[in-house]
Amino acid sequence: MSDFQQTATGDLPGIVVTGASGRMGQMLIRLILDSDQARLVGALERPGHAWIGRDLGEAMGGAACGVPVSDDAVAVIAQAQAVIDFTAPAATVAFAELTAQARAVHVIGTTGLEPADLARLAAAARHAPIIRAGNMSLGVNLLVGLTRKVAAALGEDWDIEVVEAHHRMKVDAPSGTALMLGEAAAEGRGAQLADLRTPAREGITGARTAGSIGFSAIRGGDIVGEHDVIFAGTGERLILRHVATDRAIFARGAIRAALWGQDKGPGEYDMADVLGLS
Ligand SMILES: NC(=O)C1=CN([C@@H]2O[C@H](COP(=O)(O)OP(=O)(O)OC[C@H]3O[C@@H](n4cnc5c(N)ncnc54)[C@H](OP(=O)(O)O)[C@@H]3O)[C@@H](O)[C@H]2O)C=CC1
Ligand SMILES: O=C(O)C1=N[C@H](C(=O)O)C[C@H](O)C1
Asked: The Dihydrodipicolinate reductase N-terminal domain covers which part of the protein (predicted)?
């Protein structure tokens, strides 16, 4: 039986994990319980979920850890210094408003957010820090900087394509990471991604528009997350690649962000801020 006992003692930042039963939720819970820098103070799931009211450790198949799974977001978030949230857009927007009311740090990994969701996050960030990134790993955040530099160095005769692969359960495309990489490539060219992005291709598409940025998504099996930025020139190709093999890289980044945010004022931040890459 797994031991889900809390390692931390004393007055450390208290973290609440939303979407506790999810792939990222469970990874975060294991790492926070093992951490000597933070405490797990709550676990949230949506109303009606089979885990509600159960001890979190037992629900995860191990020994009791003393943290119940709850659907009472207001009461649980009131206990938090940070909320780490890898759920779904509608849930994340609602959690942002509650987390801002509690003046806690909101770390958001959720992808697939629409402009209206982002506007609500911006409003919440007027009251407390929000740290959001489509990918919380060190490697991808370094790749973002490399992509910006390579795009700036190469002319428009180098076509840019972002190719991503994820597990069969992923619901959004292109991935949040692919969009981060596309935005960096566009910035490198002194433009906005919205002006260069090519819609998904199918049928008689015509030739490629010069200077555009294309996206392709593969879904299958248990692929954790793979991203290529392809710079296709004439007679040569340059490919920047990141391969994730373990979700712990995202969870470690999110916990680091939650701790980094403890002395920050209201506002919107990203992982480049957390990692000192800005
Ligand atoms: N930024 C990053 O580094 C990363 C981002 N992600 C993103 O994180 C998100 C989650 O990914 P993943 O863990 O794989 O997905 P899962 O589907 O495994 O987990 C999402 C969890 O959130 C729960 N949830 C949904 N709505 C609510 C709600 N209202 N209240 C509480 N819990 C809720 C779901 O419950 P139920 O199943 O019952 O609906 C589920 O347990 C995705 O958007 C993904 O793209 C993932 C990895 C890294
Ligand atoms: O859904 C996932 O799994 C992942 N989502 C993020 C994304 O959309 O880029 C990050 C990572 O690739 C895993």
From this structure: 15-136
